[in-house]
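Question (not urgent): is this output format expected?
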Amino acid sequence: MKMNRIILTPVALLIAAVAAAQDGMPAFPPAKVEVAMAELREMAPVVEVPGTVVSKNDSRVAAEVGGVLVWLAEVGDAVAAGDTIARIDPRLLQVEVKRARANVANLQADHDYRERQLARTEELAAKNSASATLLDEARALRDQALHQLADARAQLERAEIDLDRTEIRAAFGGHVTERLASVGEFIDVGEDVIRLVDTQHIEIAFPAPIALTPYVKAGQMIQVRSGGIDREHPIRTVVPVGDAVSRMVEIRLSAEGGDWFVGSPVQVSLPSAESLTIVAVPRDALVERAGQSHIYIVADDGTAKQITANIRIIAGLWVGITEGVEAGDKVIIRGAERLMDGQALDVIEQSE
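Got this back:
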């Protein structure tokens, strides 16, 4: 036999509860609910502006020496600062280093010889056996050898640096997002080979009307939403230069540790007027019934008390209420959907 399923509305549930009480039957059992504290908060009306998650370090890494590309990191590879992300064939530069070292050794030997010649000439000059002109010539030749040796050492250092540059390294940690060259290509100095994006040090960038700048300042917490995720991030800076045509300025929010994807679109709630101090409750406390917003608080006797929500401000995850709720009241944020006014409660404090 097929049974019909009956769903009772809250009014029907109340009528059933009253009838049960009149018949001596127990009323509804205590409802399990989760609560949070109403609190005084500084709040302001907000406007929604679109923003984008950006990386603080997003580089097209170029080759510093020319040569044939022999290896590239793969797209998606995670790298740390200093890791090799591309490699150029080092053989020609290894030859240059060997030549530079040989040149240094040759000039070092010549310098040592000139030093000994100068010492002998000085001894002869002290005994009046060598002229001043001969002594000056010996000193000049020693100094010339010294300068040539210094130049050769600089060329060796340059050759060693160029050899080291065949290992193209990450200047910061992040992820490889694009290969701009292929293995086997000859790469010129300054040619881009790979794109590297820092995925840890990120910000949220967005344009905002200049008219809103009096209400925002560095350090202020701003609500950000994307894909059902709500977070608060502090303003890092308001760039003090506006566009003459659009009348917009750029604002940057610090977002490190926010677990956002670089490039994600977000909606940012910016204050559009001066803030005021008002009793606020979490947005989850609102219950919509018959086109009217309500809030349930825990009464002194442990039962649910229904209050019409006179909303003044909605800012992010908080709602400013003008009356009926005091700071410190326990507001029901979970389990209020089927509550009845005066119903007994089994209260669960809000988890941190």
